[in-house]
Design goal:
There is one protein chain. Helix content is about 75%, strand content about 0%. The protein contains 24 helices and no strands. The protein is elongated, with a radius of gyration of 30 Å.
Length: about 450
C-alpha cells in the first residue's frame, strides 16, 4: 500500500507539472517581444516629432529586419539618449534577438525617460518574468496596470493583469496566493474577452482553492471548445486522480490518448490510474514510457514503484539506484531502496540505508519504520525501540508496529511492556496476521503465568 501511495503521488506531481507548463506556455506568447509593436506606442511625454531614423527603424522592425533597426536606433540614440520612444524600440529589438540583459537595460532607460509608458513597464515586466525573476517583474507589471494604455487600448492593460495572475498563482516552492491571482485574472477579464488560457488558469486556481466542482467545470469548458487541449485533459485527470475517481480518470485518459497518442504526461497519468486499480496493464505502459524517456526521473521512479508492487524488487532497485546516483541525499529514494533490500532479505544492507535516510530527514516517519523493522531482523532490539519511539512522533501506530514493540521488549526481558504491546497487537490485528497472532498468544500465556 505504501508503494501504491507513493506511486500515485508521483503521478499526480507529474501531471501537475504538465498543467503548470501548459499554463506557463500561455504567458510565453505574451512574454516574447510582447507583440507590442513599437509604432503603437502612446506618446505620454507629450507631442513630439518622430525622427526619420526612428521611423525607418520601426519600418524595419515591422519586417523583422532587426539588424537594420538596431543600426538606425544606435545611431539616433548616440545623439538623443533620452528619446523614450527610440529607447523602447531598441529594447524591443534586443528582446527579439534574445539579448535579454540589453533589452532590460533599454526598457529601464525608456521608463526613466517616460515613466508613464505602459508599454515599457509591461515589456520589462514580461521579460523579467521570463527570466525567472518574479519579484522584480511584479512592480513593473503592477505599474503597467495603473497607466493609460492610450491608442493601444484596454487589451494592453489586460495583458499586464494576466501576467500578474501567472506570477501571483501558487507555485511549488514559490508561495503565491489563489485569491490575489484570481483577482488579477478578474481584472483582465473586465478589460478583454476570456481566452482558453484564462479558463485553464481559472481551473488551476479553483483546484488549488479546493473548489473542485468549479475546477472540473472549467476544464470541461475548455474541452468543449477544443477537444484536443492537452492541458485541459491533464488538468482534469489530475483533479480526478486527486479525488481517487480512478474509473472516471481512466475513461477520460483513454479518450484523450486516442486524440493525442503517446503524449507522455497523459500516458503517465493513465499508468498512475491503472496502478492505483491494481491493473497489470500499468507495467507494460510504464515500461514503454520509460523506454521513450529513460532520463525522466518521475517516470523512472513510477516504473520502479510498479515493479516493486509486482514483486520484482531487484528490477525496481536497479532503477532506484540510478535515481540515487543523481540524488544521493533524497530520503524518499533511500526508503524505497531500503524496502527493496528488505524484500530481497538483505536486512543488514537495508538497516544501513534506512539509517542514512533518518540522518538526512529526521522527520521521515517511513524511514524510521524501515529502520525499526530492519533492526528487528538483525537482532538489535534496543535500536528497534528507539526507531519506534521516534516514528511515533510522525506516524500513528498500527498492528505491525505494535508487534515490533512487543517482540523487542520481549527479547530484552521487559515483561510488563511486552505484555501491554502484545495485547495492543491482538486488539488491532483482527485476524489479519494469523502467524504473528498465534505467536503473541503463546508468549502471553507464558508471560502472564502467575
Amino acid at each position: 500500500m505504501l508503494r501504491i501511495a507513493l506511486f500515485v503521488l508521483l503521478g499526480v506531481l507529474l501531471s501537475g507539472a504538465a498543467v503548470g507548463r501548459a499554463q506557463d506556455s500561455s504567458s510565453t506568447s505574451d512574454a516574447q517581444p510582447s507583440g507590442i509593436k513599437p509604432a503603437a506606442q502612446a506618446t505620454d511625454a507629450g507631442p513630439q516629432s518622430i525622427s526619420t531614423e526612428v521611423t525607418a527603424a520601426e519600418a524595419a522592425i515591422a519586417t523583422s529586419d532587426w539588424k537594420t533597426a538596431e543600426t538606425k536606433l544606435d545611431s539616433w540614440l548616440a545623439s538623443h539618449p533620452q528619446d523614450a520612444r527610440a529607447l523602447f524600440d531598441a529594447g524591443y529589438v534586443a528582446d527579439a534577438q534574445n539579448r535579454l540583459d540589453d533589452a532590460a537595460g533599454l526598457y529601464r532607460r525608456a521608463i526613466a525617460a517616460n515613466p508613464k509608458s505602459l508599454e515599457a513597464h509591461l515589456s520589462l515586466g514580461l521579460l523579467l518574468a521570463r527570466q525567472g525573476k518574479p519579484n522584480d517583474a511584479r512592480p513593473e507589471l503592477a505599474a503597467a496596470t495603473s497607466l493609460d494604455p492610450g491608442e493601444a487600448g484596454p487589451a494592453l492593460k489586460a495583458r499586464a493583469w494576466r501576467a500578474l495572475a501567472l506570477i501571483d498563482r501558487p507555485q511549488p516552492g514559490a508561495g503565491g496566493d489563489t485569491t490575489t491571482a484570481s483577482d488579477d485574472l478578474l481584472q483582465a477579464l473586465r478589460l478583454s474577452p476570456e481566452t482558453p488560457a484564462d479558463t485553464l488558469l481559472a481551473a488551476g486556481l479553483a483546484e488549488e482553492a479546493q473548489q473542485d466542482d468549479a475546477a472540473e467545470a472549467a476544464y470541461r469548458r475548455v474541452l468543449e471548445k477544443n477537444p484536443k487541449s492537452q492541458p485541459a485533459y491533464t488538468g482534469l485527470a489530475h483533479l480526478l486522480i486527486r479525488k481517487k475517481q480512478y474509473p472516471e480518470a481512466e475513461t477520460l485518459l483513454r479518450a484523450a490518448l486516442e486524440k493525442l497518442p503517446d503524449d507522455p504526461a497523459l500516458t503517465a497519468q493513465l499508468a498512475t490510474v491503472l496502478a492505483a486499480q491494481d491493473n497489470a496493464e500499468a507495467l507494460p505502459l510504464l515500461q514503454k514510457l520509460h523506454a521513450a524517456h529513460p532520463d525522466d526521473a518521475a517516470i523512472t521512479s513510477m516504473l520502479a514503484g510498479v515493479l516493486a508492487v509486482a514483486g520484482d524488487a531487484a528490477g525496481s532497485d536497479q532503477l532506484y539506484l540510478k535515481l540515487l546516483a543523481a540524488s544521493p541525499r533524497d530520503s524518499d529514494l533511500l526508503v524505497a531502496h531500503g524496502e527493496n533490500l528488505v524484500s530481497q532479505g538483505k536486512f543488514a544492507e537495508a538497516f544501513a540505508v534506512f539509517g542514512k535516510a533518518t540522518e538526512i530527514d529526521p522527520a521521515n516517519g517511513t524511514a524510521w519504520s524501515g529502520l525499526a523493522f530492519s533492526a528487528s531482523k538483525t537482532n538489535q532490539s534496543s535500536v528497534t525501540l528507539h526507531a519506534l519511539t521516534v516514528r511515533s512522533k510522525y506516524l500513528p501506530e498500527n498492528a505491525s508496529t505494535y508487534f515490533l514493540w512487543a517482540t523487542s521488549y520481549d527479547s530484552l526481558h521487559q515483561k510488563e511492556q511486552a505484555v501491554v504491546y502484545y495485547h495492543h497487537f491482538l486488539d488491532s490485528a483482527a485476524g489479519k496476521f494469523p502467524n504473528q497472532e498465534w505467536q503473541a498468544r503463546q508468549r502471553l500465556q507464558l508471560l502472564e503465568k502467575k
